[in-house]
Amino acid sequence: MAEPASLKVSVWRGGADGALARFEVPARENQTVLDVVTHIQRELDPSLAYRFACRVGMCGSCAMTVNGRARWTCRTHVRKVVGPDGALELRPLANLPVIRDLAADLTPFFEKWRRARGRFEPREAPDGAVPEDFAVVPPASRARREADAGIECIGCGVCYASCDVVAWNPDYLGPAALNRAWTLVNDVRDGARAERLDAVAGDAGCHSCHSTQSCTERCPKGLDPSSAIAGLKRTLFWDTLFGRR
């Protein structure tokens, strides 16, 4: 089947109560979705709002909803997602407030990181002094491997926008925040393990996850937030059973 000569692109315009606008964009070889958005902004409508930075799959800021699925637009080639008639639909990330057009407000996403205590808190020496030497973390240890498995998250929001639980429970912490909490629970240098487990144990925490694994399926970095969430559930179970909490 011959590729279409032009793309029929529907783009979300306005805020949460906006609507789709239609644009016709030339189809080109090796064209990415971000190329399409850039063409519209530069050649057809300079008022179009969207977000991007690196263009090479390092920052994640160009994430949008492409034909119903959250993706990095800089790494998504049009030929892999376009419809047979050249149709392409672009919306901002789901489960987040819309600033304008294709730009979503990630404030709730990062606020969930804060609520999950997703920051490293160094362990203090017994006398409160700063340790003189660096902590030794054996690379082959199980805890180190568990932390390494999820440490490459860059906070792009694709998993959050893909999460069915977030869609119907806005209080749910979400895959990225819980994945971050899991990496810190397994960091032997961290001194806030108990407080962090308390933070992810509530009604909006890890036990709300239904394990549909949309986050794992769609993570552009190939991470497995579903396994991280399962790890938090197991840890909370054993800690409660043996009275460690």
UniProtKB/TrEMBL annotation:
InterPro entries according to UniProt: 2Fe-2S_ferredoxin-like_sf (IPR036010), 2Fe-2S_ferredoxin-type (IPR001041), 2Fe2S_fd_BS (IPR006058), 4Fe4S_Fe-S-bd (IPR017896), Beta-grasp_dom_sf (IPR012675), Helical_ferredxn (IPR009051), SDH/FRD_Iron-Sulfur (IPR050573), Succ_DH/fum_Rdtase_Fe-S (IPR004489)
Cofactor binding notes: Binds 1 [4Fe-4S] cluster. Binds 1 [2Fe-2S] cluster.
Domain 2Fe-2S ferredoxin-type: from-to ranges: 7-94
Keyword annotations of the record: 2Fe-2S, 3Fe-4S, 4Fe-4S, Iron, Iron-sulfur, Metal-binding, Oxidoreductase
GO biological process: respiratory electron transport chain; tricarboxylic acid cycle
Domain 4Fe-4S ferredoxin-type per the UniProt entry, residue ranges: 143-173
Family to which this protein belongs: Belongs to the succinate dehydrogenase/fumarate reductase iron-sulfur protein family.
Subunit structure of this chain's protein: Part of an enzyme complex containing four subunits: a flavoprotein, an iron-sulfur, cytochrome b-556, and a hydrophobic anchor protein.
Protein name: Succinate dehydrogenase iron-sulfur subunit
